[in-house]
């Protein structure tokens, strides 16, 4: 497929996003940027959040994970749903009752300024790393399959990728994103369904024949219960998925900021529960696509791309879509789906980073009215520059499958948030705040050490994503040890 055609499609796509921005950003006040005036329809938010929750990582990396982990990712996804139920039942009522803009304001009210800053810091750290992961994947694909042809350096690819996001989010922020994410989610889901149909047409199977074939049986195993030491054991995956959802959605300003644009609590709860339900079949389709991709590659002897001496299963989908004589149809579908999936999460990440830093660190509400908008826009620009730097750094340090890397990082950086919010909700104790940072860093460090040495310490046991639970529990225990004698009302 012609690189020029692919680039033209991308430019047209961004022109559409900018056009949407024109209609949503006539009011570019901070109230609109941060809250969208709290009048977003819940079903629009829910549909858009599908794309934001999945992202370009799911679009490419989950299918690329099937060869080594089969359908075990569904164990995590089922855990996600139960995590969303807890968010709807426990966290959303709390946030709406306190009328929060940044959810980390809860920590200020509950404990004090140091806990507030610590919670916001770990969100910023987590979201910067995760958003960078996701954008890195997209930039790598664009570079490998399109821009290398024109000898455009990777650094320039990254700069322009982030620049496009900045252009359509810098005015109306979350209000724009609620609507652009709706378009992007539709394109992403449509793309993966069309890709499944096209691949099935090229394989010597009907749908039912493929389901019953030995080729599919090699990938379809979903539940792993043989060995508790295995990272893929169902209980570890389920619990890990549940707490990842609680932490990465319920304790994450990025995702909660969209929920809090709904008109009321009931609408927001409908959004979260429906999102959890829909993600189950959608992720199943992605895994089914992965089985089709590896089956096609095996039958047609398609080699997995190698970059700098490393085999990259993340690149199998684009390799087949763009380089295996499928014509322009699958290539166009793939590019639209990839860009839609990636930017539906990256744009909201940039907005939420701006929101959290403005409120939790700068205290923008206390600034002179004439300066508030200017401060917000400078923060938005600075985070855009920071994303560029981190993505470029990943080019030199990232080795693992991206979805695996993302979940590993989340298990460490969201642990202190999980422990801090849990302590606030489940107990009435106040904290001796001078020790809060020490507890968080100690819990994170100890969790990392336990994960590294788990086999020798626990008779061959390997931690999966349940290390997040351990991290949160260690934080909770540490906070209990530094509790003050008085209790909150």
Number of strands: 4
Sheet with the most strands, sense and barrel status: 2 strands, antiparallel
Low-pLDDT residue spans? none
Query: What's the number of helices?
Result: 21
- Radius of gyration computed on alpha carbons: 22 Å
Please trace the helix and strand order, writing H or E for each element. HHHHHHHHHHHHHEEHHHHHEHHHE
- CA(first)-CA(last) distance: 65 Å
Identify the quaternary structure here. Answer: single chain
The order of strands across the largest sheet is 1-2
Helix content: over 70%
Strand content: under 5%
Shape type: globular
Rounded mean pLDDT score = 83
Give a verbal description of the structure.
With 489 residues, the protein is mostly helical. The protein is built from 21 helices and four strands. A two-stranded antiparallel sheet has the order 1-2. Helix 1 (3-24) runs antiparallel to helix 8 (174-202) and helix 14 crosses helix 15 (327-361). The termini are far apart. The model has no long low-confidence stretch (mean pLDDT 83).
